């Protein structure tokens, strides 16, 4: 696996692949990789001739008081995992390469509607940062396909809207959530949990499963969500939100059938997110 840090070298290498008629798959990450990231690499490997991963801890998507400085940087370990997973090229730029004029002077991409509420409400400006860096990576890599995890459900919706609205020639693929044996969605931030918190953390997914069963059995959404919030608080979580949305993140209406439960909650200082799709009864 080749690791590049500079934009001209990246463009030169990828231009050669395109001249040879090879398709390119992109896996954007912030590093500190786990098996969920490697599932994205595997999916890209199935869909493209050349797999490009990126590692960049994007300061634009972190808000004041968030964990930008504490976010683990584990480049050597990540390189080894990517190479073992069959990645062909890693692009790992520094902040000065990505934002040479600094964040304040940087052009930004903003996606309306779908980026509002949920994590967009709890983390103002977060999805502007996501949309900007993803647009930049799509421009730099010019992939045929890009793979993103379904754990970040709203992020995936934002990226799909971005691609549709800007008519970008990229197939966006959502890859199912990879979970630990006890149901906890894999996340780089799980490493922040203490042993005691890690024992509690699976309750997040378990609560979604219980709510899904109740809703599919016909329980009123307001009552089910209230019960879910109470269970999370009893378990020790501090919820940011627990919502039921249509699968496209629009509000649930009487005719909605395909829906999704979405949750974000803090366990100590660690913010965890999860989601679960379900079919509402007629």
UniProtKB/TrEMBL annotation:
Residues binding (R)-pantoate, per UniProt: 61, 155
Biological process according to GO: pantothenate biosynthetic process
GO-annotated molecular function: ATP binding; pantoate-beta-alanine ligase activity
Chief localization: cytoplasm
Family: Belongs to the pantothenate synthetase family.
Domain of life: Bacteria
Stated name of the protein: Pantothenate synthetase
Subcellular locations according to the entry: Cytoplasm
InterPro entries in alphabetical order: Pantoate_ligase (IPR003721), Pantoate_ligase_C (IPR042176), Rossmann-like_a/b/a_fold (IPR014729)
Pfam families the record matches: Pantoate_ligase (PF02569)
NCBIfam families from the UniProt entry: panC
Role description: Catalyzes the condensation of pantoate with beta-alanine in an ATP-dependent reaction via a pantoyl-adenylate intermediate.
Other information: The reaction proceeds by a bi uni uni bi ping pong mechanism.
Organism: Halomonas stenophila
Annotated beta-alanine binding sites: 61
Pathway: Cofactor biosynthesis; (R)-pantothenate biosynthesis; (R)-pantothenate from (R)-pantoate and beta-alanine: step 1/1
CDD domains: PanC
Enzyme Commission designation: 6.3.2.1
SUPFAM superfamilies to which the protein is assigned, alphabetical: Nucleotidylyl transferase (SSF52374)
Residues at the catalytic site: 37
Keyword Electron transport on entry: no
Binding-site positions, ATP: 30-37, 149-152, 178, 186-189
Catalysis performed (reactions): (R)-pantoate + beta-alanine + ATP = (R)-pantothenate + AMP + diphosphate + H(+)
Top EC group: ligase
Subunit-structure text: Homodimer.
One Gene Ontology cellular component: cytosol
This protein's UniProt keywords: ATP-binding, Cytoplasm, Ligase, Nucleotide-binding, Pantothenate biosynthesis
